[in-house]
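Weekly sync notes, structure subgroup
Attendees: PM, AL, DS (notes)

Item 1: joint prediction request from the bench team. They want all three components modeled as one assembly rather than separately. Inputs as received:
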Amino acid sequence: MRIWALAMLGAALAAACIASLAVGDQTVALGEVLGALAGDPETPQVSRVIVLDLRLPRVVLAALVGAALGLAGTLTQAIMRNPLAEPGALGINAGAALAAMVVIVRADALPESLLPVFAFAGALAMSATIYVLSWRAGTTSLRIILIGIGLGALAGAGASFISVFGPVAEVQRAMVWLAGSLNDARWVKVQWLVLWGLPALALALVLVRDLNLIALGDTVARGLGQRVDAVRGLAILCAAMLAGASVAAAGPISFVGLVAPHVARRIVGRHHAVLLPTSALCGALLVVLADLAARRVMAPAQVPVGLAAALIGAPFFGYILWKTRHE
Amino acid sequence: MSGRLGGVALWSLLCILIALLSLWSLTVGASGYGMGDVLRAIGSNGDDRVALVVNGVRLPRVLAALIVGATLALAGAIMQAVTGNPMADPGLLGVNAGAAFLVVVALAFFNIDAAGQLVWFAFAGAAGAAVLVYALGSGGRGGATPLKLILAGVVVASFLGAVTMAVLVVDGETFDAVRLWTAGSLKGREMSQVAALAPYALMGCVGAVMMARQFTALSLGGEVATGLGQRQGVWRAVALALVVVLAGSAVALAGPVGFVGLVVPHIVRLVGGADYGRILPFAILVGAGLTLLADTLPRALWHRDMPVGISMALIGAPVFIWLARRNVGRAA
Amino acid sequence: MRRLLAALCLVLLATPSLACEGRSLDDARFFASPLCLPETPARVVVLDSSFGLGIALDAGLSVVGAPLDRMGDAGLKARAEEAGVTSIGFVTEPSFETIVALQPDLILAFVGSESMASGVYPMASQFAPTALFTSLDWQGFYRVLADISGEGDRIEAELAAYEERLADVHARMPETPVSVLRITSWDFQVYLDAPVAYAPFEVMKRAGVVRTDYETTDDPDLTMKRPDWEELAALDGDIMLYIVGGTNASDTDGRHEEVLTNPLWQMLPAVEAGRVHRVDHGTWMEFNGLGSAHSVLDDLEAYVIDAP
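Output from the run, pasted for the record:
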């Protein structure tokens, strides 16, 4: 059953990617799309540029961002032992957003090419601060979440401060970035995402067994010999790297980290060895679909991809909650 | 303890303090009018510049600050009683975000800008968000635990925030129009707006104070309350209605201002204990005073007109964090 | 020996700097300069719909694409459409697919700041040589574009005529302080006499107009202030020019009347003296080149110099 479901998921993702490559502001025939991908020299130059330099990096970036967010969400929900937790709730997005706003608005001092780096650093700094502040002879999930929310609000106030007192044009651009967009999808962003994401992925795979264990509760896990605080710290670091990398690439996209793990859990159950990759697939599918919808539904106007993800994900989320309300 | 009498005396003292604070706030502004000018101008029907500025520009702002502070503090106190969650607040539980979202929709798509009409959108949004948060937070084991409610609030607030932001990004004009308001701002409030919303705020305040005993019972927990003969379902619904009216009026007036509802009840409880009959009246005054202070101080000290939502967040978030560190002891 | 040295010199001096086969643009006001642009660009895409589009059309470049969607300046939009310009979307989210399909050989924009340029450059430069002007010197931009389009002489003449007129206006400009206010449906906006002033107000400054203290600043970051009714009193110039309508509905939704009947407005010195004039939003808020600059000077002549 599981293998079947996973295969379907993979196929759906592939189909979504092909659809995303075939559809856009300019009509490119499916034959030409496939030809461009295959390197067929007969394909017209314009079609080749559109498919390979515009749509392909965008699809790849969307899928990777979705996968990263799905993974980050699974990690967060595992260590918080709470199905409503997501990296956004932990204030990680707010930290990245604040850092990004500083760059965009004060950018005569800071070039915008530093934007991804700052956003990533902001996410990491935020998670470190959350962890430190929630340390009181150890950490508890509840404290981490609450402090994350508090710090997120503080970062949000900081970002609001900048948006109110900053120059209007830059602020409006910052607002577009804050809404989440894959418009500026380039291969170099994919590179950065992979660069930051791979170590995080490796770390997550190492933690798989510990994640299963920590779900049983602190006391039980400790009793079974787990160093609970260390695991929590590492998992938060991992989630922050993944979430931070995706925010750096595409701006803050909320909801994917919340919904993807839920859908994955419905499909393959709770064991993190399978749950993690499935979450990644679900997240990738969600973002690729969201980006497709964001680009086309109100064409030529572009809806922010974060909003599209939220709108697509919300019904699924509601349905799942309804189904599991008695669990 | 000298109980009631001591309480009344303290409350009256606080009233006088708030009045003095308001008078001081009326002297803060770009035109440099002193206390003498202000005293002469208040309420006068004069059409000289001082009177126009004091009555038409500064007074509405002061009154709005007081109203917003009082209503949000009450809303927070009620939410904390009903949810048994010491960290409940209309901002955190998405109520403000819901109200703000529908107000933005009204501005952008229906071109409504009269406060008296916008407030109904605020009510609807607040109610919708509250119901959504409660439904989301009660799913699964254990019902609506404090943690789940807060997380549900964050989820709903961020969802609504994203949708609101999307509307603003697409409609640049509305974006500029509400740029300050979305951060929670009292700048440019007019007497007509204050007058339109004051009745609702008043209704909410009076209603809340009248129900104080029920809230005390609710705050003692579900079983105790039922034991005391309270029909919980009814009173929870009443509480929801009050929160919607209170928070909705505040948002319609100043945009989403967070943390007042969180911080003020805690301050008041330090003095008043757990009796909502004392907490609520004091919350009105402390909330009003705190908000007025947060709105006036940046202008008085640094000549910067900082949106009150930002000032409150800068004060309130550290308090929230401190509370989280203090209150949460054991592993969850 | 001498012949060998001569030959060596010839070779060294004649070696071309790494093969720019078009025109090399070495101008620090352009992002990522020096740039290698085509000698005679025939398909230019402009990324902004005000300064860039207006000046490119004026300079005679063959513009094939610009972000015409939701443009506020109807006149410029009509002009562009007539010139056969295809819309590439909305200015903050241009469709790069459409840009690529237009097969541009040059991408241009008047960006006005390094930061905005650094946001656009990486994407745009993948598809065509991209020249992003980061300074606010719109006359300098004219000259560069005219150089590229080969109409340098005509543009130089027009700019010279403008400078002459500017000097003439300056000489006749009285010392009376003038206040300029924009009334929107939701607030007041005052565009300042500042180092980074918005173009029409820079024109005003160069024409020698004196503005009130509130409206003048040295702050390198400040372009606009938003006074409330109380601060409005700081606009105490002897003459008041105000802007309503345009990209917002303040001229039709009652805001205009509301402001004019407010006692605090009527107490302003200029209003009491009756020296208040409404000016056109298109001229003052939708600057797109020499045409706009001349319109600003027209208004200044009518309302400040020749005013009773």
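Discussion: The longest helix of chain A spans residues 45-80.
Action: AL to compare against the crosslinking data before next sync.
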